[in-house]
Here is the input.
Amino acid sequence: MKIFKSIWLFLLFFASTVFAETPQLDLVLVAPGQRDEMRETVNGENVHGESSSLSFIASYYKDIASDNARIAAEARKAREEYEEVLNRTGVPPQPSLSASELESRDRAGQAIVDKTQHSLYLRREKTFSAPEREENERNRFQALKYYLSVANTTNQTIRHQFADMADRALNMINPDMHYEERRMFIDMASEMLDFAVGIGASVGVDTFQAITGKHYRTWQDLSETDHILSAASVMTLGFGGAGVRGVNAIVKIADHLYGPGHAVLVRSKVFQHVYDSARKFGFDLKSLKGGSTGDRVIAETLASAGNITSKLTLTSTEALDTGIKWVGDGYKQIGLPDSGVFRSADSLRQFRIDKGSIAGGHDPFVPHVHFETYSPSKRDFEANNHVPIKD
Amino acid sequence: MSQSKIDEDIPLDRVGQVIAGKGCGQYVRVVYDTVKTGGYYIFQSTSKKFDSPETYDGWFEDMETVTIVFKERGWIIEWQPELKLV
Here is the structure.
């Protein structure tokens, strides 16, 4: 291990100081339990502060979290009552609300959404002065450049997970269901499909809209709801905490905007996928959550598919420590001696610090290292995470 | 312009475009690194000059693996012999 570290430490330090000239825009996550917000930084300096659209979104989650728990509890209670009547009488209970009453309920729900939007608007207007907003606008465009570069690395698995959820929701519908319940499941399936498309295919649009707060085509100001949904979609690009919160947020927002029932079925399934991925590679995700930058890189890699550019940056020391943790005991170097390509004993993980990558000759065009996953049945990688390094 | 299926030889240091398979439309180039790693790089990019932000590299141990990876990705490549990287 010591030889492994000393050789590459020198190479990484040299390359990262010589080649790394491009300012790196990085996402820094505040540790869970402290402040529930995301900040963007350039070279370690906070450029968005409290005004970033993402921290604004984070404050929104807090506001709706308690509502969400209450609504979910009510949904469960309603379901239990429904099943109790069905078991006792053998006949599905009749709809408790007429069509007009349902419309009235929807209007009431919309009023709550409108009121929330208004209060959010006031809060934002009150908090920031005009020069601050102007400065923030400049920073937003700087961030936009970065986000667009990573937009194409959207995690396909999350997208498929939502599509899968939509299928499951549709399959759960049966003729004996209560009218309101059928409606809820159909709405849920529809929304999940929308999210699947929104997160996957239109992530570039969401990214643009989340940062600018404007419609990508008409350049009109977005409604607060659209802004929230776009930002939540972008947040799923981050992992190791941010992704979990992003998915959580989308589910909560769906609950809030479209009625109860989404969170209970969807959240656990999405999380299950991430946990399963981690277990497959022998990592305990709980120990990675909120851990070091290296741990977050590992979590990011585990939750990814295909080629991605990491949103995190490692120092050369962190890169080597994380690389050693990634390949684990019994790793071997493949290719020529000093190739810089290290495979885990089970051949399912690869850490690559080859000289070409350290020179930064391709995306992300700065010195970087690779964290890669493989499946036992294929020769191609499953995920190839390009992680910038900088000291 | 020559079209190659996966069972045919994969040329080195030539730019090709994926016309079928994963990442259809992207450009690829296979480079044999005899000096530093002894392996093969598959470069993939949305740009012909491989200078776009969506330019990535994969590293594979030998040509047999490269051939299998082409197959796994379902690639049919239209190789462009005239195009030289500057």
Remarks:
- Chain B touches chain A through 25 residues (CB under 8 Å).
- The CA atoms of residues 12 and 57 of chain B lie 15 Å apart.
- The mean pLDDT of chain B is 84.
- Chain B is about 10% helix and 35% strand.
